[in-house]
């Protein structure tokens, strides 16, 4: 429960207590594996205990840490290598998917390994262990929602074209910030055909625009919107030129 009217919040809690058996635990500190800490800088959320429990469960508490969640230019393929325990693989990937709620730095790697849950092989399991090694290097990482005096909306987009060894694959990545703090991010394989990196980047930009418009509309409904332009950033000159021509 959150709000800016303390009296109304107190009244609502009393009404709820009349209908349900509830307990006021005070300010949020821990919820479904997510730890919440407050300071003068803002609100910090992480899943440190969740990560440590995951490492203990998989027997990787003493593993050698990795500097990145996946090797550079690493390609995963279907049907290559020896089959592994399907249920164990799906359970591990499922826990990593939930972990990406506070760790956007592993979102791309997790989205890749999740594409092979129907038929996991040795290379796929090795990629999962690599992610766990990366988590071992810094289990306390998380997201800081800083205090700023503005609500500027920004988005950054990118796309991995043909990243799974097939030309039809399009893997757009995007993240959006409100007031300088990261609020949404996405890394997901799309069921579309892209014939070039420029087209893939342009599609990612289109999705980024949709996310920006949705956030602006949401802030307007919450009466938190402020005047000013929303910004979209992309690192592909061809896609940027196509967007300018379309405009």
How would you characterize the overall build of this protein?
It contains seven helices and eight strands; from the N terminus they run αβββααααββββαβα. With 247 residues, it is an alpha+beta fold. The chain folds into two domains: 45-142, no CATH class; 149-246. The strands form two sheets. It has a four-stranded antiparallel β-sheet. The protein has a four-stranded mixed β-sheet with strand order 7-6-5-8. Strand 2 (34-39) and strand 3 (42-46) form a beta hairpin.
List keywords for this structure.
single chain; 39% helix; alpha+beta; 7 helices; 4-stranded antiparallel sheet; 2 domains; 247 residues; 4-stranded mixed sheet
Could you name the ranges where pLDDT drops below 50 across 5 or more consecutive residues?
165-170
The helix fraction, in percent, is 25-40%
Number of strands: 8
Q: Helical element count?
A: 7
Q: What sort of overall outline do the alpha carbons produce when their principal axes are compared?
A: globular
In quaternary terms, these chains amount to: single chain
Q: Could you give a short account of the major beta sheet?
A: 4 strands, antiparallel
Overall SS class? alpha+beta
User: Whole-number average pLDDT?
Assistant: 82
- DSSP strand content: 15-25%
In short:
The protein is of the alpha+beta class. The protein has helices at 6-19, 48-57, 86-99, 107-113, 122-137, 197-221, 237-246; strands at 30-31, 34-39, 42-46, 142-146, 153-161, 170-178, 181-187, 231-234.
Write the layout of secondary structure elements.
Layout lengths: L5 H14 L10 E2 L2 E6 L2 E5 L1 H10 L28 H14 L7 H7 L8 H16 L4 E5 L6 E9 L8 E9 L2 E7 L9 H25 L9 E4 L2 H10 L1
Parallel strand pairs: 5-8
Antiparallel strand pairs: 1-2, 2-3, 3-4, 5-6, 6-7
Helix pairs in contact: 6-7
């Amino acid at each position: 429960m959150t709000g800016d009217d303390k009296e109304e919040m107190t009244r609502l809690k009393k009404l709820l207590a009349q209908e349900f058996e509830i307990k006021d635990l005070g300010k949020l500190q821990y919820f479904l594996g997510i730890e919440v800490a407050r300071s003068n800088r803002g609100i910090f959320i992480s899943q440190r205990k969740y990560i440590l429990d995951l490492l203990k469960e998989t027997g990787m508490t003493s593993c050698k840490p990795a500097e990145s969640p996946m090797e550079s230019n690493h390609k995963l393929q279907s049907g290559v290598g020896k089959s592994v325990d399907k249920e164990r693989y799906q359970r591990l990937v499922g826990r990593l998917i939930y972990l990406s709620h506070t760790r956007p730095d592993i979102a791309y790697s997790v989205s890749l390994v999740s594409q092979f849950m129907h038929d996991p092989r040795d290379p796929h399991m090795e990629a999962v262990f690599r992610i766990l090694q990366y988590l071992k290097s810094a289990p306390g990482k998380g997201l800081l929602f800083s205090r700023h005096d503005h609500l500027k909306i920004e988005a950054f987009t990118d796309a991995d074209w043909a990243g799974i060894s097939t030309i039809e694959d399009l893997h757009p990545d995007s993240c959006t910030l409100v007031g300088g703090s990261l609020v949404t991010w996405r890394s997901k394989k799309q069921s579309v055909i892209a014939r070039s990196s420029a087209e893939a980047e342009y599609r990612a930009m289109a999705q980024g625009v949709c996310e920006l418009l949705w956030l602006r509309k949401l802030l307007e409904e919450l009466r938190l919107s402020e005047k000013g332009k929303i910004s979209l950033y992309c690192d592909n000159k061809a896609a940027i030129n196509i967007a300018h021509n379309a405009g």
